[in-house]
Amino acid sequence: MKSLFVGNLSFQTTEIELSALFQPFGQVTRVQMVMDRETGRPRGFAFVEMANDEEAAKAIAAMNGKELAGRALKVNEARPKESRVAPSSRPQGRRGGFSNEDYSEAARKPREPRW
């Protein structure tokens, strides 16, 4: 099973339309439109899962750059989601900004007079 990223979608595009669009290239096992958590509206991209790699490659070749609802689609193989580091799991200690060490006499260099 191969997952495809489909980007630059019109916000009016539905999962049914996407499924029908990719059907000619092979069996579509799943279509997932990505929605905004706060508004519940589509975010303009989706993931389409195809039954095998060969069908997915045909779909990428045919659909990348194709126009749908006045927008050129961007279709490629989906990459795994990168893991994010939660803010609370940052190393403790310096939390940003300046510390007293930044103002120490040893760290300061003598400056020339401004006149």
Walkthrough of the structure:
The chain has helices spanning 15-22, 53-63, and strands spanning 2-7, 28-35, 42-50, 67-68, 71-72, 74-77. With 115 residues, it is α+β, with helices and mostly antiparallel strands. The protein has a domain at 1-34 and 54-70. The termini are far apart. 16% of the residues are buried.
Q: What is the chains' assembly state?
A: single chain
Overall mean confidence score, pLDDT: 85
Give me the secondary-structure category: alpha+beta
Number of strands: 6
Write a brief caption for the model.
With 115 residues, the chain is an alpha+beta fold.
Provide tags for this entry.
115 residues, alpha+beta, two-stranded antiparallel sheet
Summarize the SSE layout with pairings:
Elements: E1 2-7, H1 15-22, E2 28-35, E3 42-50, H2 53-63, E4 67-68, E5 71-72, E6 74-77
Antiparallel strand pairs: 1-3, 1-6, 2-3, 4-5
